[in-house]
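Long-time lurker, first post. I've been practising inverse folding by hand and with some scripts of my own, and I keep getting stuck on stretches where the structure tokens seem ambiguous. Below is the full token string for one chain I'm working on. Before anyone asks, I'm not after the true native sequence, just a reasonable design that respects the backbone. If someone could post their per-position residues I'd love to compare against what I wrote down in my notebook.
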């Protein structure tokens, strides 16, 4: 469930009064969380619900570099990748409202967190390690898992990054449920949070 207070209302809080026609959501929404949490799949559906474009930050990094994430890590190392990641996130956050699926490590950058805080609503897709292991085992494009024990790496990352992810405006617990169900819960939580007068989105419990 989403950790936010839910006042009466719906995901259509930003509609034209009386017209029933939904307006695009007025702020960017950034999905953060570990690899395998479902940020891309959920983000695409969430973007449709909010009337916003969707962008996967990792794909933007690849397009800018002309290399895959795996190739960037292999040729230039993780520090180079993180530098490019920070620049891409800055560019995306400076543009029009968008749903952004951030890379797993993007939110660990203090500069990126500040930019997100200023320009967007952040949502942590929180999933347990068993689910993350199951999902990441299906694909082999995760540089941090290459040649490593996936469970050990994911447990370490969950412990290291969890406290930082917890700074997100909304926390949404995810299970092995359809992406559209997760997107619907996020849309309702986003609408409820922005509907609260003077809310900063930090009323989590």
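-- Answer (accepted) --
I ran through it position by position. Result:
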């Amino acid at each position: 469930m989403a950790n936010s207070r839910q006042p009466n209302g719906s995901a259509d809080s930003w509609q034209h009064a009386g017209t029933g026609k939904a307006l695009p959501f007025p702020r960017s929404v950034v999905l953060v969380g570990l690899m395998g949490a479902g940020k891309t799949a959920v983000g695409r559906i969430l973007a449709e619900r909010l009337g916003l474009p969707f962008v996967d930050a990792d794909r933007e990094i690849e397009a800018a570099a002309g290399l895959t994430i795996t190739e960037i890590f292999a040729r230039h190392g993780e520090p180079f990748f993180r530098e490019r990641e920070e620049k891409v996130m800055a560019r995306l956050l400076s543009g029009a409202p968008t749903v952004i699926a951030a890379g797993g490590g993007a939110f660990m950058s203090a500069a990126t967190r500040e930019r997100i805080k200023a320009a967007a609503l952040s949502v942590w897709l929180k999933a347990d390690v068993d689910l993350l292991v199951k999902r990441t085992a299906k694909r082999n494009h995760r540089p941090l898992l290459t040649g490593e024990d996936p469970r050990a790496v994911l447990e370490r990352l969950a412990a290291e990054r969890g406290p930082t992810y917890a700074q997100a405006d909304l926390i949404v617990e995810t299970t092995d449920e359809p992406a559209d169900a997760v997107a619907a819960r996020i849309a309702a939580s986003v609408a409820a949070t922005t509907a609260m007068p003077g809310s900063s989105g930090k009323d989590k419990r």
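A couple of notes from the structure itself: Helices lie at 39-50, 57-65, 69-76, 78-93, 110-119, 129-136, 150-165, 179-195. The first helix runs from residue 39 to 50. Happy to go over any region you disagree with.
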